[in-house]
Design a protein that fits this description.
Elements: E1 16-21, H1 24-36, E2 40-44, H2 48-57, E3 61-66, H3 73-83, E4 88-92, H4 97-105, E5 110-113, H5 118-132, E6 143-145, E7 148-151, E8 156-158, E9 164-166, H6 169-180, E10 185-187, H7 188-196, H8 204-218, E11 228-231, E12 235-238, E13 289-291
Parallel strand pairs: 1-2, 1-3, 3-4, 4-5
Antiparallel strand pairs: 2-13, 6-7, 7-8, 8-9, 10-12, 11-12
Helix pairs in contact: 6-7, 6-8
C-alpha cells in the first residue's frame, strides 16, 4: 500500500480525515488505507453527533460514503457545508446524473460513484488535502470571535474599538486560522503550511513578521499584546478576552503537521459561530472511534460491494 503514496508529500502527513459512512465494513477499509498514508482518521455515522464532531476535530478533509442510507444525506452535507470550509469528497453507490448533481448542490466538492479502488481513493485524498492545506480566504465566511469580526473576502477586520482595519492576504489568512481556533496554541509549522501552502516559501521568520504586522493593526499596545499571544518555542494563540498577562502555557497545542490530535487537544476555546437549526432526521449511527495506529486495525481484503 505504501508504494501508492507519494512519500515526498510530507506536509500531508498527520493531516486528519473525517470519514462518515453508512457501511462500517467499507469505512474501516478506508480508515486502514488512510492510516497507511500516515494520516489521522475519525470514523462516524450520519448522526447529529457527527455534525458536532467535525468542529471538535477540525479535519482537513471530509469523506461522505453512502450506499443505502435512510438518512437525509443531502441535508447532512448541506449542514456540514454551512460551517466547514474544508473539502468534502462524496462517495456513492448511485451513478445516475440527477443524484450526482444533487450532491454538488448540497455542497460536495467532488462526487465519485462506486466502485472506487484504493489507488484512486488515495490519489483523490492527496489532491484534496493539498488544497485543504492552503486557507482559501476568498471562499471563507465572515468570522466573529469576541469583539473581532473578520471578513476574509474583503481582507478586513473590525476590532473591538469598532474600527475597520485592512489586511494583506497573508495577514487575513493567518488571522482567520488563529480566530477559528481561538483559545488554542497553533504550532509554527502548522501555521506556515496553512498560510503559505504546500508549495509556498514561508518559514518561521516570515511568520514572525506577519504576526508583528498584525499586532500593530489589532492590538491596543503591540509591545504588550492582549489578543495575539506568543507561546515560546511552540507557536501562537488568539484569545478573544484580551486579558493582559494571561498565562497560556497551560493550553495544549492545537493540531499541527507534527503533533497528535485527539484527547491531548485543549477544547476550552471554541469558535463563536451559530450552528444551523433544523434539518432532516439523521437515522444512521455508526459508532465513532479514533484510529491511532495501524495495529488497531486488521488489514481487510481490498474488495468493494457491487
Amino acid at each position: 500500500m505504501l508504494d501508492l503514496f507519494d512519500s515526498n508529500e510530507t506536509s500531508l502527513m498527520n493531516a486528519t480525515v473525517l470519514v462518515v459512512s453508512d457501511q462500517p465494513e467499507t469505512a474501516r477499509i478506508w480508515a486502514f488505507t488512510l492510516k497507511q498514508m500516515g494520516l489521522e482518521v475519525c470514523l462516524a455515522g450520519f448522526s447529529e453527533r457527527t455534525l458536532q464532531l467535525w468542529a471538535e476535530e477540525y479535519p482537513d478533509l471530509i469523506v461522505l460514503e453512502v450506499y443505502d442510507s435512510t438518512a437525509d444525506v443531502f441535508e447532512f452535507c448541506r449542514r456540514l457545508r454551512v460551517e466547514a470550509a474544508v473539502p468534502i469528497l462524496f462517495l456513492t453507490s448511485r451513478n445516475d446524473e440527477a443524484y450526482i448533481l444533487e450532491t454538488y448542490r448540497a455542497g460536495a466538492d467532488e462526487c465519485v460513484p462506486h466502485p472506487v479502488s484504493p489507488r484512486l481513493f488515495m490519489a483523490k485524498t492527496q489532491a484534496w488535502l493539498r488544497r485543504s492545506l492552503v486557507v482559501p480566504s476568498a471562499t471563507l465566511d465572515v468570522l466573529q470571535v469576541g469583539g473581532f469580526v473578520l471578513d476574509p473576502d474583503r481582507k478586513a477586520v473590525m476590532i473591538p474599538t469598532g474600527d475597520m482595519v485592512k489586511l494583506t492576504n497573508l495577514e487575513a489568512r493567518l488571522l482567520y486560522l488563529l480566530m477559528s481556533h481561538q483559545g488554542w496554541i497553533l504550532e509554527t509549522d502548522y501555521l506556515v503550511e496553512r498560510v503559505w501552502g504546500h508549495f509556498g516559501e514561508g518559514d518561521s521568520v516570515l511568520l514572525k513578521n506577519v504576526v508583528y504586522r498584525l499586532r500593530r493593526k489589532i492590538e491596543p499596545d503591540p509591545s504588550q499584546p492582549r489578543y495575539l499571544l506568543t507561546e515560546s518555542s511552540i507557536g501562537y494563540k488568539f484569545q478573544a478576552s484580551g486579558e493582559l498577562g494571561r498565562a497560556v502555557t497551560s493550553s495544549a497545542p492545537a493540531p499541527a503537521a507534527s503533533s497528535k490530535r485527539g484527547n491531548e487537544i485543549s477544547t476550552s476555546g471554541t469558535r463563536e459561530r451559530t450552528r444551523p437549526a433544523g434539518g432532516g432526521k439523521l437515522l444512521v449511527n455508526l459508532p465513532e472511534f479514533r484510529v491511532r495506529g495501524t495495529a488497531q486495525l486488521h488489514s481487510p481484503p481490498l474488495t468493494r460491494r457491487r
